[in-house]
Amino acid sequence: MNKIELLAPAGDLEKLKWAIMYGADAVYLGGKKFSLRANATNFTIDEIKEGVKFAHEHNAKVYVTVNILFHEEDMTGLLEYLKELEDAKVDAIIVSDLFIIDLVKENNINLEIHISTQECTLNSEAVKFYKSEGVKRVVLARESSKKDIKNIMDETNMDIEVFVHGAMCTCYSGRCMLSNYMTNRDSNRGGCAQVCRWVFDLYDEYKTKISDVAEFAISPKDLSLLKYIPDLIDIGVTSLKIEGRMKSIYYIATLVSVYRRVIDKYLEDKENYKYNKKDEIELYRCANRETLPQYFDKFPGVNEQYYIGREENTNQDFLGVVLDYDEENKEIIIEQRNYFSKGDVINIFGPKKEPFNIVVSYIKNGDNELVDAARHPKEILRIPCYKKVSKNDLLRVNFLG
Ligand code: SF4
Hints:
CATH topology of the largest domain: TIM Barrel
Bound molecules: iron/sulfur cluster
Oligomer: single chain
Helix content: 25-40%
CATH architecture of the largest domain: Alpha-Beta Barrel
CATH superfamily of the largest domain: Aldolase class I
Largest sheet: 8 strands, parallel, barrel
């Protein structure tokens, strides 16, 4: 069976464990220095070691981003840090500034190198160059089309990683100065202020404000290639990457479990595989922005952008985390995350588990008293469940019918 890697974001140690539990083959994370996503919690070297140990025990890999563009002031401590990553037995580093390739070679540091999407690689000649330098894998720019990905695979026979889900930039990957210009926060050193999603006033060519446009933004909708997983597998890409190191555990668990299911179903029986719209609904409900294939199937146009502000919805779908299952009383013990009440139909999902529904015929609080609703965040409650569930399964609003 053709093995393809599902690669998930890990914003902290807890998210790393959840991503792997829910089916990721590998995770990527950033250390406290030299990594983009400065607002993610990011890992100390001891946390990286613990994450690598957990991942390797579960046959998963850990890649560490060292993908800022380095200014002179950023260089202090880099060599020592790379040696610490080697010592921590990380499976690869993801780099953007190319001098790191030489630095690793010259110092005989045993680290596999992946080229970050920040390098904006869009053609096979660039990939051949990286290959000749000893690079193991290239993460293509999110602006790659299916045709280009296939050509690059055919021309280079290189390990290729493709983004399948997450946020897009208005500018090409790694080529944006908006944040630097508007906020003095450097998007290529982890400081992006997401300026492209701000609301702007719009002026005509005579510098007159167009007053009938209430809000104007230049924010791209998010990327999802769920529908195209079979195409990517058949093209032969090595790794499918989910973006979002700052996302919640619920988001990561949902995305990883849906992509895992789709990949496995296609690999199990390619001929009879059918795209299931319900998988897409699951993804849509846990995200707060519309998703599209973006550059994969055509050049994006007006429909791939938000032009009237952020248009994001928060949702209250995440209802609770399973702490334990009481087999004798056929009850789940949960930690509540959002309101639900007696009589609701809720959905339960977990690692490598088909989601299923239950009716909440009663709710008991921590004193074993019956209550009509789960009102308090983090409250420990009991609800009936005919099927055995496992610790760390998740409860959500039933939106699957
Ligand atoms: S400002 Fe927008 S386009 Fe620029 S790096 Fe940030 S998210 Fe990307």
